[in-house]
From TrEMBL:
It holds the Pfam family adh_short. It comes from Mumia flava. Keywords: Oxidoreductase. This is NADP-dependent 3-hydroxy acid dehydrogenase YdfG. GO terms for molecular function: oxidoreductase activity, acting on the CH-OH group of donors, NAD or NADP as acceptor. It comes from the Bacteria. The keyword Cytoplasm does not apply. Belongs to the short-chain dehydrogenases/reductases (SDR) family. PROSITE patterns: ADH_SHORT (PS00061).
Amino acid sequence: MTEHSSDEARTAVVTGASSGIGEATARRLADAGYRVVCAARRTDRIEALATEISGVAVRCDVTDPDDVARLAEAVGERLDVLVNNAGGAFGQEPIDRTDPDDWSRMYDLNVLGTLRVTQALLPALRAGGAGTVLNVGSIAGHLAYEGGAGYTAAKHGVAMITETLRLELNGEPVRVTEIAPGMVQTDEFSLVRFGGDAQRADAVYAGVPEPLSADDVADAIAWMITRPQHVNVDLLVLKPLAQAAPWKVAREG
Ligand code: 8X3
């Protein structure tokens, strides 16, 4: 296995780094000694974050192949870690009422976004000699829930990218891993899902004693990444104590 010399900073790319799990992961990886390339659409946020953690900000919308090509250019020839975090849900309607346009957007963002960035950065991960691809999936990628089909379909797609890539890279020095969080309370996930309806978004977490925080997930991601390179955490499912399933949450009050 190729090892890096101790004075050479390892580099990690985090997509969707402007908020939530992505931002928290960028901070955790910087704490762990990585030079973090913070990629997202909102340049003001990633520039502030990059300044704070001595990283680099690269504007990147993962649904835009030109942006992804520019990200790969900014990364250069060698890369150690890719965290495919950019993603999200649009809508939560039953199948008989769900909007196919929401499904297209979710597939483009979650599945094709992960594919585009992975394809573009895989050469640098291979060249680094000790790479890791970590896909931020969801419990929605491993089960079904009512109203969730568009999102669960997309996250199942992410899970299959993870599984397939691990098979295809077998024998190469690149780990392929997935974290599958359940209920995580972030500023934006549910608000985006419900098109800015704060009441609907707040109801998701109502009475839940302690949903996961973005930092709880980032902590687990950093743990997965900082295992010795021969240890591949295939899949880590992370839920708050109060959640047994998407539809089974112990609420107070
Ligand atoms: C978010 C978890 O249960 O809302 O990825 O689908 S869930």
